[in-house]
Design goal:
The protein has 345 residues and is of the alpha/beta class. It folds into three domains: 85 residues, Arc Repressor Mutant, subunit A (Orthogonal Bundle); 106 residues, D-Maltodextrin-Binding Protein, domain 2 (3-Layer(aba) Sandwich); 96 residues, 3-Layer(aba) Sandwich (D-Maltodextrin-Binding Protein, domain 2), CATH 3.40.190. The chain is 42% helix and 21% strand. The chain contains twelve helices and 14 strands. Strands 3, 4, 5, 6, 12, 13 and 14 form a seven-stranded mixed beta sheet that branches. A five-stranded mixed beta sheet has the order 9-8-10-7-11, sandwiched between helices. The protein has a two-stranded antiparallel ribbon with strand order 1-2. It starts with a helix and ends with a strand. Keywords: DNA-binding, Transcription, Transcription regulation. Belongs to the LysR transcriptional regulatory family. GO terms for molecular function: DNA-binding transcription factor activity; sequence-specific DNA binding. This is TRANSCRIPTIONal REGULATOR, LysR family.
Length: 345
Amino acid sequence: MEIRQLEAFAAVVTTGSVTAAGRLLGRSQPAITRLIQELEAELGFALFTRSGPRVSPTEQGFLLYDEVEQTLAGMQRIRTRAAALARGDGRPLRIAATPALAAGLLPPALALAFARGLCAPERVAVQSQSPEQVVHAVLTGAADIGLNSLPLEHRGVTVHWIGQSACVAALRADDPLAALPALTLQDCRGRRLIAMHNPYRLRRRVDRALAGAGVPAAGVIDTNTSISALTLVRAGLGIALLEPVTARGLPLTDIAVRPIDADIPFFFGVITPQARPASAAVQGLVQAVADAAATLLPDLVRREPAEHGALLQSLYGDAGDAGNADDAGDAADLPTQDSGLTSHD
């Protein structure tokens, strides 16, 4: 399996056409076709279904593309790093963050880090990824630091601090409820709600709060990012119950953000690889993120990393006893359990 074959495969998936892929890579259409055929012969299955000049990935092709995309991205990082070494540049600071934290919190944190002279803008690389991918990037060394929602249970990463802030409601500024200084969950009765689709993370807390208040929704639009939730609200499609970082850190015209009366906490923090000492730039960014969060979120509570195990317990319960998670108390009141992570102040 050669890189040229993988590049041809990825280009055809991206463009939907062998001819367009050839133009993208600067190769002829027959050359692209030959590379794809060679790759399919080596793999033993078809990567595309063909309909005239258009091609579509098979199910196996779609599944393979995820791996190929990561491999090619790694190759691009190698090329970029090699070019930087040739210029005599130092190693860039590689940051992985969830979409919410990358959009709402990382920019002001980086601005603080730059102002403090901790790193140069041209030596920073930012990747916006899912929480699971952020952890993977930190564990594998693809990222020096991760900004992630919590809790998480992965050995090999260090949690430096835990931030807690209350979730908020986002609604159109011309909505009658926007005239209120704060919303109750009862205000959402009969309204279409917009929420995160992952049932094991923040959505779990939102659903539990709504059920506890006896508030049925007229309907729910599921989405995978808070940014999408805000744009759906802007289009008048409902009220969003979401984490506060995006809502306050990425304000949109015609969107009103209001506190809600329910205790729906959002937890987040900074993680680094346990096996590799944090550089001065990483340590500085850890502090810059904390400072930026304190400015952005007026209700921010900063918890100690040692509370991470209790946080896991309060939200999910012990393994095999998840049914009791809903009855668990506040994280700070629970005994700390071994979460498999190293704590740093």
